[in-house]
Amino acid sequence: MSVVNIILSAIDALLALAIIVLFLVQEGNDRGMGVVAGSNSSTDSYYSKIKGRSREETLKKLTIGCAVVFAIISVFLYLSLARNW
Fold first, then answer.
1. What local confidence, expressed as pLDDT, does residue 52 receive?
2. What is the distance between the alpha carbons of residues 47 and 40, in angstroms, rounded to a whole number?
3. 84 in the Ramachandran plot: left (φ > 0), alpha (ψ -120 to 50) or beta?
4. Which residues neighbour 56 within 8 Å (Cβ) at sequence distance 6 or greater?
């Protein structure tokens, strides 16, 4: 293994841990069966208006970003190990 592969492996492991932690920190969906029944009580609430700037939305964006970077690094790491770059 080259130094680049070791560094990419370490970054890949750290990103995997970050994704797990970010996923566990996020709150669950508390609406329950109301979603199935069609009742939407938060249509015009203050929370629905500021949802894009909330802590939950920030955690969601961070999780998606980490997952995308993790996938890209994983593919590059696989290719570099398989072809001995």
1. 63
2. 13
3. left
4. 26, 27
